[in-house]
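Two proteins follow. First one:
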Amino acid sequence: MSIANFFANQEIFVTGASGFIGKGLIEKILRSCPNVAAVYVLLRPKKGKCIEDRLDGILNSKLFERLREEQPQNLQKVHPIAGDCTELGLGISEADLVRLQNVNIIYHSAASVRFDDPLRDAILMNTRGTYELIKIAETLKHLKVFMHVSTTYCYPNRRVVEEKFYPPYADWRTTIKLAETYSTESLNILNLKYSDFQPNTYTFTKSLAEQIIKEYKDRLPLVIFRPSIVVSSIEDPVPGWVDNFNGPIGMLVACGIGIFRTSCGEPNIVSDFVPVDIVVRAMLIATYRKGTEESHKQDPKMEVINCAASKMCPITTGEVIEIGTKVIKETPFEKTLWVPGGSITRCPVWNFIRFVTLHVLVAILADFALRFTNTKPFLLKLQRRIYAATLALHLFVTTEWDFRYDNFYALNSFVPESEVDQFGFLQYTNVDYEQFFRMGIRGARVFLLNEPPECSQGALTRMKIYKALHFLIKLVGSVLILRCLGRFLYAKFYATFV
């Protein structure tokens, strides 16, 4: 059976449909598995928008342009389900539960990926939300696959992470009970001790969710899919598609605008990130593999899959910054405020000094100038967010993990030869990183900054002006420093010998 035929006439339920992976997954299913019966997506009203409006906003986004041109009728197969992963029963009504009774495949990708979430909020969303969906899945008589999207960073204290279950940091039932019983403030006090000093609430609560999956894996057709850092697409549906500022693309955008000039980390560690379309393809193959498990009884079960690629095509953090800075200077953004630059340093003291001088002081001066143009100041507030983000990510830019990925690598062997172009992913492992970042920055320009895909002549001209001013400021600064140093040395010499 081909992969596309396996998905034919199947009903699919997706949580996290408004997220990066969720959007890419829905688009790929509708375009490459055109005979799918229905795709139900869990959405909650947000910012005054009802779920129908939110779904329209997703389906009318630039991501779905190719699908709207090639197979517009398939957009009618997506149906919103009102709910919230932080509520009991996911907040799904009885009527909607009846609509879901014929669901064959569940993708649970909903999660709060904020590292600074209060422990209580993260438990209710990431841990209890998984349990509530498991209980719903137990009522579905036609369920073939339940895929839980986790993360390779669930166990950050382990430098080698294999495709298997690990002992829990805490009991998931007790943890859910604590979140239901105690206040946010009380749990924040217990956070570090209770979570065994995990770096953030995200990794801790996602690891607990895996324990739920482990407990139910013999009762339901469950698969844990662990992607590493998910970045812009390499091909599907277009090269460079991205919908958030997380990971290296966000760092390069901030660098390209000129507001991010220093970071504390280890430039020689190998960064592990995977393009979103490779993640989605692997998810579909793993679903096909699990759904046709009877025909693969001679093979070991793939209950846990580490979707990591650092060994396939390694690149260091320092190389990411070097290549990205080069590309951005050649194709600057329209919103660029200054010359892209800066670097990564191992010294936290030096990084703090550079942050205060190059980030904070410059932001204060710029915001002061903006007040005279009747523009609302924003740079200092933005720099606070950047600083908080760099603190939260410190462990992940100073540590290198060894993610074992035998199950992930083997997935490609299950792709029928006729569908390699549609679903295979090993053909993309020999990445030309300069070209990849060019497309990623182009995607950031289009999908994040709402700029034209090509760099304008005006942006190139402004970059030349910024470079000249940057050189002039450095020259004047160097002269002033040398002059002050000369006066100091002269005073010392004069006091000693005269």
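Second one, unrelated to the first:
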Amino acid sequence: MEQREVGDNLTDAPCGAEAREGHAGLCESHYKEYLVSRINGHSLDPAQLFDEEEMQLQLVRSGKVAPPKAVGEDDGQYRNRLLQLICSIPLGEKIPRVRK
């Protein structure tokens, strides 16, 4: 179900979008919404699963500059340093959106 504007009123109506196999009977948009609610409901941090490139991108999205890898720093150490920086970003901080 989703709310739709009908004139000046909001009404509940079935989504109507195609449900993909493996998405719990939900359309792609509502499935993503469901996954986010599950992640938030269990206080999970998806940053733990990011690779180096995704971490750098997250820092840029948050208005931070991803630091370069230090001399002698191995991949694991660098990844942990990036993760610490990401985890230091307050959750309520607004992330600037790029409009297309």
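SUMMARY FIELD: Confidence is low (pLDDT under 50) at residues 93-100. Residues 47-100 form one domain.
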